[in-house]
Amino acid sequence: MNDRERMVATLKCEKTDRAPFIPLFGPWGATLERWKKEGLPDNNWQAGIGFDRQWEQIPVNLGYSPAFKEEVVEDRGDVQIWRDALGILKLDRKDRTSMPQFLEYPVKGREDWEKLKAERLDPDAPARFPADWAEKVRRWQTRNHALVLGYYPYGVLGTPRNMMGAEEFLISLHTQSDLVKDMMNYLSDFWIVIYEKVTAEVEVDIIHIWEDMCSRNGSLISGKMFREFMAPCYRKIKAFAKNKGITLLSVDSDGDVRELVPWMMETGVNVFWPFEVQAGCDIREYRRQHPKLGILGGLDKRALAKGKDEMEAELKRAEEMLKRPGYVPALDHLVPPDVSLENYRHFMGRLKEIIGA
């Protein structure tokens, strides 16, 4: 099987020659800097490991067109107040090495939302497709890897939350419910218009939606709210995918997703990741509860900073999961800077042996 066939069949929980061998996540920037000091040449952290081709994200703009202009509003020495491409005003360190303080978001009410739609969320904006689109379409006709439509930070809840800020968004579910529903429904329809243009020329393997709507204490919203606000949007996207012959609908959310996964599956989601261990996720339990769910990730990144015994414990978790189809073994998030290059290569070498890649 080639990388495309193997990935698609695995996520559909079908039998394959072996599981895909992919990184899923790479290193944080600070991790990469550490690895360079430890001898990594040319920033190429995948070199010599022998990963399969993971997938390719279709580079179509699913967000603002035009984006907000990134600009420094005030310089305070070591810190700045600046606005990013999503229109979010932040107080941040100049070296961007810590979590910023979020000061202001672009949507505070109906007027802001209507202005944003009119000025930046036209699905027919010509700049949504790259200049070399025709060349990419020709190349993809003979590809041997999967194509994914959708990426961070675009999700039914995730995107409106980034437009309003988490606290204001969650309050608005109660105080401005019509506005929130309009945002979710408009964005879903907006994406489907773009999806339609892509699928007219390209055979897509996976539609992916980013949410990050859970903490270590569970979902940010209740099941009732999910079914009222989000489920209709997911069902529209799933119906589109089914009509186009796209069999895989994927969702990414950090945190404890025990509540969220079954809600998502009710709407047609059949692939989920990354199952953070530090949030209480155990992929073996998810497999027992959801035998037809495509699962990626779920191996504790923190173990790689500890030692070979801890790494072997995570690898045993992967071995157990690989006894049944439907699992892509990988770390549960970006590799943190306390992980050495030697430990990362050791872990991935052992995982490769277990997979038989």
Detailed description of the structure:
By secondary structure, the chain is of the alpha/beta class. Helix content is 39%, strand content 15%. The protein contains twelve helices and 13 strands. A seven-stranded parallel sheet has the order 1-6-7-10-11-12-13. Strands 2-3-4-5 form a four-stranded antiparallel sheet, with no helix packed on it. The longest helix is centred in the middle third of the chain and has 23 residues, at 177-199. It is globular and about 55 Å long.
The N- and C-terminal alpha carbons lie at a distance of 12 Å
Q: Roughly what is the average pLDDT, rounded to an integer? A: 97
Helix content: 25-40%
Mind telling me the C-alpha Rg?
A: 21 Å
Class by helix and strand content? alpha/beta
Q: Could you list the spans in which at least 5 consecutive residues all have pLDDT below 50?
A: none
Total of DSSP H or I helical runs spanning 4+ residues: 12
Largest sheet: 7 strands, parallel
Shape designation? globular
| Spatial arrangement of strands, main beta sheet | 1-6-7-10-11-12-13
User: Which strand-content bin applies to the residues?
Assistant: 15-25%
**Strand runs, count:** 13
H/E element order = HHEEEEEHHEHHHEEEHEHEHEHEH
